[in-house]
Amino acid sequence: MRSRQLTRWVPVVLMVGMAGTLPVQADEFSQEDLKRWEGQFMEVVKQGRELWTRALGSNGVSCAQCHPNAANTHPETYPKFQKQLGKVALIADMINWCIRNPAEGQPMAIDDPRMVAIQAYINYERRGVPMAPGKH
């Protein structure tokens, strides 16, 4: 019972600003924060583009050879049933499939900074496309 009572108050406490003034929304950021985070994101996108355009396997094939500018990657449709994998997959699964098969390379862990950078680049290039998970 005590934990339930405490849980009810946690959101209220978190909403109150540092000086105990008006509540602060979790999605309210300063312009300085937004500028700093955008810069960090764009640096990761840049790293992703560099990875995208170089061979990630043993045969010299890069992602860009089949998907220039991340074309036809459809991150906005994942997770979805992916025929090549025979299951519902994340885009990271498909990236690893491409690294293993056409590129003849080693798959990356989902939290590998290179995987994060590649996904950031793909999503950046596909920005503005409506989300439609499950659609091929």
Polypeptide structure, described:
- The protein is mainly α and 136 residues long.
- The chain has one domain: Cytochrome c-like domain (Cytochrome Bc1 Complex, Chain D, domain 2), CATH 1.10.760.10.
- The chain is 46% helix and 4% strand.
- It has 5 helices and 2 strands, in the order αααββαα.
- It has helices at residues 2-15, 31-52, 63-66, 91-100, 113-125; strands at residues 80-82, 87-89.
- The protein has a two-stranded antiparallel sheet with strand order 1-2.
- A hairpin with a 4-residue loop joins strand 1 and strand 2 (87-89).
- The longest helix is centred in the first third of the chain and has 22 residues, at 31-52.
- The protein is globular.
- The termini are far apart.
- The relative contact order is 0.15.
- The model is unreliable at 1-18 (pLDDT under 50).
- What is the number of independent domains? 1
CATH topology: Cytochrome Bc1 Complex, Chain D, domain 2
What's the total number of strands?
Answer: 2
Supply the number of helical segments: 5
CATH class: Mainly Alpha
Q: Which shape, going by the Cα principal axes?
A: globular
Give the overall pLDDT as a whole number: 85
> Largest beta sheet: what is the strand line-up?
1-2
Through-space gap between termini: 47 Å
Percentage of helical residues? Answer: 40-55%
Question: What is the CATH architecture assignment?
Answer: Orthogonal Bundle
How would you sum up the major sheet? 2 strands, antiparallel
SSE succession: HHHEEHH
Which stretches are low in confidence, meaning pLDDT under 50 for 5 or more residues running? Answer: 1-18
Name the CATH superfamily classification: Cytochrome c-like domain
Fraction of residues in β-strands: under 5%
Based on secondary structure, the structural category is mainly alpha
- Measured on Cα atoms, how large is the radius of gyration? 20 Å
